[in-house]
Amino acid sequence: MKKMIVISVILFLIINAFAATFSNEEIIGILLMEEEEKLARDAYLELYDLNFL
Fold this sequence. Notes:
By secondary structure, the protein is mainly α. 79% of the residues lie in helices and 0% in strands. The chain contains two helices and no strands.
C-alpha cells in the first residue's frame, strides 16, 4: 500500500513538472491509466488469494 502511495506521489510530481508539455487529455489519460493499474493490481491480488494464479 505504501509503495502505491509513493508511486502515485511520484507520478503526480512528474505530471506537474511536465504539465506545460502535456495536453489536458494526456494528463487525464495518464491519471486514468494509474487508476486502471491499481484496479488490475487489486484483481491480481484477489485472484492470487483465491488460488487462481
